[in-house]
């Protein structure tokens, strides 16, 4: 089994690669259970976090994953001032490459930037979210969380994702990964936010939330960005809530052991009812926790596991 | 000054004339097989000699963006591509909306002695899409075309008035047909690939809708409207329909829309970011078919050079456009003539008689007395695209490394050698 050099998206990772990664994440989860939550696995390695788009949650999760394995972490946050206006992406990377990191964790508002950076550096690149395209570690931690509850695997299972599919890298990455692992995925949202081109293979689309949730083993609500309203994509928040808020009623049609998921941060009672988010079916907290162990496994695999 | 082009296989709009010695006197064609003393002999054995190409659509970036291209580099690139005449687009900084600027460009280009420059001027003042420029004064200064190319004319009323005014003056209005609010922030063709890549899409409907509007305005006003860079099947079908209705419109396609698809964006390389965007296989097939059937009037390069640094930005920030003057003929000869999709005769027509007809210029021929604007083509020459050798400042290309057959080896403009290559 060869391990890919980068984690740009899950497309170029085989099912075998992914299962190996999940097994490593199991070990990492145990590390995080210890009193001293630190191992020397990545001592001497430097992990650079390049967040061209702010995301405290994801950045902290990666940094914690790196430090728990004793890697050095250097952070670059481009809140506008650090990235010179008009400077090319390549020039920016060349400047940052002075950090001599072995691996860069990259978040950028534009699709494809991690791929572009991977062409210009020898370091490994982990995509921490590029535009609306991909968020592979989120998909991996979501699938990992599901696997904890359904150890018999993904074949024959159904995942429903509801919300702003159009602008969601989480939806794209999860659809890609879960179908690769053998599950069926239903994407659901208002027609203005549901690109028909995403259907195909094991991915189907519906504008009807109850139909999407019907028999699902997991239902994931996506965060709704309120700025979508102004651009004619949604008539009003009230209308969205009435048609697409994930509630206990909707979940009644799902599989009895179905999981309620959300990549966070939540708008309570907009895309998901507060009661459901805090209820027994919710694995939202587990997703956050698993995020660290899955990211530990990603860093470990790319830096050490590849040798 | 008398020049002999020896053993040239001659071809022009009147047909194929076989191998002859072609004589030039001064800046004009003198005749064939005349004999007598010459000052200069060019050996054209095994090569095709034909009127130099005309490009109605090149961005030469002067004034103001000389880091991307300037008249010297752009017109040298044109000559290297076999072009003897180039219409330069006016979306420069400042825009070419002033007669003085038109005259200055024309004068400067004439001194360079490379390809001939025929400047376009903007339709709206400052490219703002609000008030019209002084068409008559611009024409008197040398502008041959009126266009806001690069920026679609959003206001239909302004477009109508521009057409009325231009019609009276016999000027061609060229359009960049993309309905702006439908195109929105799209950076690539809207379709399966854009959805998978998560990149904002620009639907073919934006092009088709705007072509429809502009053709209606052409019908309404009787103005000559030239639809630049038609990229989609839908757009081309609208053009065909309006042509059948007798609308006074012509249209062009670009080399990149005939050879590349949106699948290229999967590499996330902004080199493939162009406006209008690269479309699908189906669109490319339809455009090729439209070339063959004669719906398309000319090939326009839409040569749009940028600096490497600009193209090394992310896909939203990187500018639209690619440089292609130097590879256009070899690319289309290889991919279209080489594959049997198009005859050489038709391809040449799209570079010679076609663009001349669009502009109302005389058809370029090799008849005695015609300007000695010629290209010498080595149709057997086969070599890889090597951007490092480009005359253009944009030394990178989507076709870099690709082996193409059929290259210009010499371009003469007014009897002078404007390009001589390997
Ligand atoms: Zn244009």
Automatic annotation (TrEMBL), chain A:
Task: Indicate yes or no for the key word Transferase.
Answer: yes
**Recorded E.C. number(s)?**
2.1.3.2
InterPro entries (UniProt xref): Asp/Orn_carbamoyltranf_P-bd (IPR006132), Asp/Orn_carbamoylTrfase (IPR006130), Asp/Orn_carbamoylTrfase_sf (IPR036901), Asp_carbamoyltransf (IPR002082), Asp_carbamoyltransf_Asp/Orn-bd (IPR006131)
Provide a GO CC annotation, any one.
cytosol
SUPFAM superfamilies, A to Z: Aspartate/ornithine carbamoyltransferase (SSF53671)
Indicate which residues the UniProt annotation says bind carbamoyl phosphate: 57-58, 107, 135, 138, 264-265
Instruction: Provide the Aspartate/ornithine carbamoyltransferase carbamoyl-P binding domain boundaries.
Output: 5-148
Which keywords does UniProt give here? Pyrimidine biosynthesis, Transferase
Question: Recorded GO terms, molecular function?
Answer: amino acid binding; aspartate carbamoyltransferase activity
Q: What class of enzyme is it?
A: transferase
Q: Give the record's GO biological process terms.
A: 'de novo' pyrimidine nucleobase biosynthetic process; 'de novo' UMP biosynthetic process; amino acid metabolic process
Annotated pathway? Pyrimidine metabolism; UMP biosynthesis via de novo pathway; (S)-dihydroorotate from bicarbonate: step 2/3
Its UniProt entry gives the catalysed reaction(s) as: carbamoyl phosphate + L-aspartate = N-carbamoyl-L-aspartate + phosphate + H(+)
Aspartate/ornithine carbamoyltransferase Asp/Orn-binding domain: which residues? 156-301
Residues binding L-aspartate, per UniProt: 85, 169, 223
Q: Which family does it belong to?
A: Belongs to the aspartate/ornithine carbamoyltransferase superfamily. ATCase family.
Q: What function does this protein fulfil?
A: Catalyzes the condensation of carbamoyl phosphate and aspartate to form carbamoyl aspartate and inorganic phosphate, the committed step in the de novo pyrimidine nucleotide biosynthesis pathway.
Listed under subunit, the entry gives: Heterododecamer (2C3:3R2) of six catalytic PyrB chains organized as two trimers (C3), and six regulatory PyrI chains organized as three dimers (R2).
Its name, as the record gives it, is Aspartate carbamoyltransferase
Q: Which organism is it from?
A: Truepera radiovictrix (strain DSM 17093 / CIP 108686 / LMG 22925 / RQ-24)
UniProtKB/TrEMBL annotation, chain B:
For this protein, the record's InterPro entries field holds: DHOase, DHOase/Allantoinase_Hydrolase, DHOase_cat, Dihydroorotase_CS, Metal-dep_hydrolase_composite, Metal_Hydrolase
- Pathway stated in the Swiss-Prot or TrEMBL entry: Pyrimidine metabolism; UMP biosynthesis via de novo pathway; (S)-dihydroorotate from bicarbonate: step 3/3
GO function terms (MF aspect): allantoinase activity; dihydroorotase activity; zinc ion binding
Amino-acid positions noted as binding Zn(2+) 2 in the UniProt annotation, renumbered to this chain = 149, 176, 229
Task: Describe the reaction catalysed, as an equation.
Answer: (S)-dihydroorotate + H2O = N-carbamoyl-L-aspartate + H(+)
What GO terms in the biological process aspect are recorded for it? Answer: 'de novo' UMP biosynthetic process; purine nucleobase catabolic process
Q: What is its EC number?
A: 3.5.2.3
The Swiss-Prot or TrEMBL record lists the needed cofactor(s) as: Zn(2+)
Record: residues binding substrate: 59-61, 91, 306, 320-321
Q: Which residues form the Dihydroorotase catalytic domain?
A: 46-233
User: Which superkingdom does the taxonomy of this entry point to?
Assistant: Bacteria
Q: Which CDD domains match?
A: DHOase_IIa (cd01317)
Q: What does this protein do?
A: Catalyzes the reversible cyclization of carbamoyl aspartate to dihydroorotate.
Concerning its family, UniProt says: Belongs to the metallo-dependent hydrolases superfamily. DHOase family. Class I DHOase subfamily.
The name on file for this protein is Dihydroorotase
Gene (name only): pyrC
């Amino acid at each position: 089994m060869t391990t890919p050099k980068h984690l740009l998206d899950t497309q170029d990772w085989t099912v075998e690669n992914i299962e190996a990664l999940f097994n490593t994440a199991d070990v990492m989860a145990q590390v995080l259970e210890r009193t001293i939550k630190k191992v020397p696995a990545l001592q001497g390695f430097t992990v650079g976090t390049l967040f061209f788009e702010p995301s405290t949650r994801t950045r902290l999760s990666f940094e914690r994953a790196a430090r728990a394995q004793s890697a050095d972490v250097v952070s670059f946050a481009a809140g506008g001032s650090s990235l010179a206006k008009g400077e090319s992406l390549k020039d920016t990377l060349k400047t940052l490459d002075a950090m001599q990191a072995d691996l860069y964790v990259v978040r950028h508002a534009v699709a494809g930037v991690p791929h572009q950076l991977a062409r210009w550096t020898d370091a490994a690149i982990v995509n921490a979210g590029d535009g609306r395209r991909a968020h592979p570690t989120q998909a991996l931690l979501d699938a990992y969380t599901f696997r904890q509850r359904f150890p018999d695997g993904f074949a024959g299972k159904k995942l429903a994702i509801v919300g702003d599919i159009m602008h969601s890298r989480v939806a794209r990455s999860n659809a890609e990964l879960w179908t690769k692992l053998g599950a069926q995925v239903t994407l659901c949202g208002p027609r203005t936010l549901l690109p028909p081109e995403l259907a195909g293979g094991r991915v189907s689309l519906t504008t009807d939330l109850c139909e999407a949730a019907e028999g699902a083993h997991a239902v994931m609500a996506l965060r709704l960005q309120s700025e979508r309203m102004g651009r004619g994509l949604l008539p009003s928040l009230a209308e969205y809530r009435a048609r697409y808020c994930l509630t206990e009623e909707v979940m009644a049609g799902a599989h009895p052991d179905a999981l309620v998921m959300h990549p966070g941060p939540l708008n309570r009672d907009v895309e998901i009812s507060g009661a459901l988010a805090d209820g027994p079916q919710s694995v939202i907290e587990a997703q956050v926790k698993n995020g660290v162990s899955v990211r530990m496994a990603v860093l470990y695999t790319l830096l050490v596991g590849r040798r | 000054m008398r020049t002999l082009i020896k053993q040239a296989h001659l071809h022009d709009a009147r047909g194929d004339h076989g191998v002859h010695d072609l004589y030039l006197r001064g800046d004009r064609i003198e005749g064939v097989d005349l004999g007598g003393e010459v000052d200069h002999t060019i050996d054209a054995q095994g090569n095709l000699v034909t009127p130099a190409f005309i490009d109605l659509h090149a961005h030469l970036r002067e004034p103001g963006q000389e880091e991307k291209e300037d008249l010297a580099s752009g017109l040298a690139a044109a000559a290297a591509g076999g072009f003897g005449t180039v219409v330069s687009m006016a979306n420069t900084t400042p825009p070419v909306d002033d007669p003085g600027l038109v005259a200055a460009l024309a004068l400067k280009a004439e001194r360079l002695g490379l390809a001939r420059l025929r400047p376009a001027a903007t339709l709206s003042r400052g490219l703002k899409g609000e008030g019209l420029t002084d068409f008559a004064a611009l024409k008197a200064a040398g502008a041959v075309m009126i266009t806001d190319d690069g920026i679609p004319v959003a206001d239909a009323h302004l477009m109508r008035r521009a057409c009325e005014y231009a019609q009276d003056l016999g000027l061609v209005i060229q359009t960049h047909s993309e309905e702006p609010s439908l195109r929105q922030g799209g950076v690539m063709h809207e379709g399966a690939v854009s959805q998978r890549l998560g990149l904002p899409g620009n639907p073919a409907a934006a092009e088709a809708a705007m072509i429809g509007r502009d053709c209606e305005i052409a019908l309404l006003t009787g103005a000559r409207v030239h639809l630049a860079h038609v990229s989609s099947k839908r757009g081309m079908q609208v053009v065909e329909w309006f042509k059948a209705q007798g609308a006074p419109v012509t249209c062009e396609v670009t080399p990149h829309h005939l050879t590349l698809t949106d699948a290229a964006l999967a590499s996330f390389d902004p080199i493939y970011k162009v406006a209008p965007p690269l479309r699908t296989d189906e669109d490319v097939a339809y455009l090729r078919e439209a070339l063959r059937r004669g719906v398309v009037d000319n090939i326009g390069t839409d040569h749009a050079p940028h600096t490497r640094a600009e193209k090394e930005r992310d896909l939203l920030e990187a500018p639209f456009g690619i440089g292609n003057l130097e590879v256009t003929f070899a690319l289309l000869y290889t991919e279209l003539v080489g594959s049997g999709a198009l005859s050489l005769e038709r391809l040449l027509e799209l570079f010679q008689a076609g663009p001349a007809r669009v502009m109302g210029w005389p058809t370029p021929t090799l008849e005695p007395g015609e300007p000695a604007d010629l290209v010498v083509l080595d149709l057997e020459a086969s070599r890889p695209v090597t951007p490092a050798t480009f005359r253009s400042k944009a030394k990178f290309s989507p076709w870099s490394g690709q082996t193409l057959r059929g290259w210009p080896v010499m371009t003469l403009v007014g009897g002078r050698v404007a390009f001589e290559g390997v």
